[in-house]
Specification:
Layout lengths: L23 H36 L1
Length: about 60
């Protein structure tokens, strides 16, 4: 008999709540990490756009 493989990875479009919720202390830590990552991404985007702007001025 063939085994059925289960997909344990949720889809981004799933509306079901996650089965495991982090404890409050871990959640605070994770929120801080996500905020730091978002700040890093934003800073990188600003630097890239600034570099693109300088590049366009040099070749414009």
């Amino acid at each position: 008999m063939a085994r059925k493989s289960e997909n344990h990875q949720p889809s981004l479009l799933d509306e079901e709540a996650p089965l495991v919720k982090p404890c409050p202390d871990r959640r605070v830590e994770l929120v801080g990490l996500v905020e730091a990552l978002l700040r890093e991404i934003a800073a990188t985007l600003v630097n890239v756009r600034s570099a693109e702007s300088i590049h366009e001025q040099d070749h414009g």
